[in-house]
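Notebook entry, cofactor series.
This is the third protein in the set we're modelling with a bound small molecule. For this one the ligand is pyridoxal-5'-phosphate. I'm keeping the input format identical across the series so the outputs can be compared line by line later. Sequence and SMILES below, as received.
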Amino acid sequence: MPLTSPWRADFPALAILESQGQTYLDSAATSQKPQALIDALTGYYTCGTANVHRAQHHPGERATRAFEDSRIKVARWLNAACPTEIIFTRGATEALNLLAYGLEHLITAGDEIVVSALEHHANLLPWQQLAKRRAAKLVVLPLDERGIIDLEAAASLIGPRTRLLAVSQLSNVLGAWQPLAELLPLAKAQGALSVVDGSQGVVHGRHDLQALDCDFYVLSSHKLYGPEGVGALYGRGESLLKLKHWQFGGEMVRVADFQHADFHAAPLGFEAGTPPIGGVIGLGATLDYLSRLDANSIDRHELALHSALRIGLAEREGLRLLGDPQLALVSFTVDDIHHGDLAHLLTEQGIAIRSGTHCAQPLMKSLGVEGAIRVSLGLYNDGVDLQRFFEALDQALEMLR
Ligand SMILES: Cc1ncc(COP(=O)(O)O)c(C=O)c1O
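Returned structure with ligand:
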């Protein structure tokens, strides 16, 4: 079956990159953008910008309406119960820091915050630092050999002192879906809150946060084919009530005098200052575009592409895959070859992949590797991209051996 992507032409940058001899296989870091987003941004910036939630003039009303429409679109995309459960942030990292500060008052000395061994620094360091501030303990769930959180170990490590569980949906290094349906109830049974880092997961398949039953979920727009500088934090209605305000300034306050202030509830109370208005509107347009595509066809395409990538890598001698990747990306090392040297030669041949520790240094250490090459896929990649990658890989390996 030829691996063609019917959506490739919707992403104009790919043709330009191709004309420059570049093959883009780094979508887990950030994705290329659809024409629908570019059109929406052009429309917004050419029709007159205005700040949101404050101006009574017509451009202000128009910007506010478009901004709030995006909130509805994100809520719909995640199947949140209500748009007010969506807080716009500047990315997944900011959303996780918001949570680590907003929930700090619930953590006392000796409490336990549980993360997994595969977390991106963005879903590790905010909790590590929170644990330090509150003299709490950071508990790390181990993985099995496939790179999946070990549920038996989790059942024994999540206990009465657990106040919070923060785990990824899909690993940015191992490409493995995590067993959230089994894991989250373990936290809930102990009265602990759950935070899901959906940065990688949200890009693949369709998601239903009401069914997932997490307290909080974070995403970054730029990985989901949307603009940079925008993220979203979902919080279940009653879980949002537990959050303390963390950034202070304009528009998040109801009344203020020199000594006191009274703040808005979520979402506005957590969106201090001027938000990334164009970006939020662009994210809405991106979700409109994605909603028009056939989700089953995308799933089939992404699986076929991933399987071809895995098979091709398995055919090459001396390559070691990290874990048992299921979708979206594959990370690997090569016996006796430094990942940096290989990445250098791939880059020279126009292959855009990532090498290093992928913002997951503790995971790399526990896997016993210094770093790895990561190839990651978007819905626009095709068989030609893979062919170019494998040709470049073979050439690089030949040179290095
Ligand atoms: C799993 C995971 N979590 C969090 C992040 C942080 O996302 P951002 O840098 O967009 O805030 C990333 C980015 O690579 C990621 O892969």
